Amino acid sequence: MLEEAGASIASMPSSEVYTAMQTGVLDAANTSSMSFISFRLYEQVECLTEPGDFALWYMYEPILISEQVWQGT
What we know:
By secondary structure, this protein is an alpha+beta fold. It contains three helices and three strands. It is globular and about 30 Å long.
């Protein structure tokens, strides 16, 4: 789905996402809520997508987008 929207996909361990977002290697990430908290990814994002009442998946999986990309700078 993300590739069809024009995204380039990069797979990496959750432990590397923080630095990748901080340095601009990643503009966005799809991760578990546990990784979001454990690796303090909230420090690198301004907003995230919550599943809401009609989620298709039982586990909270936020999509993270760097502030720089979100603002278009």
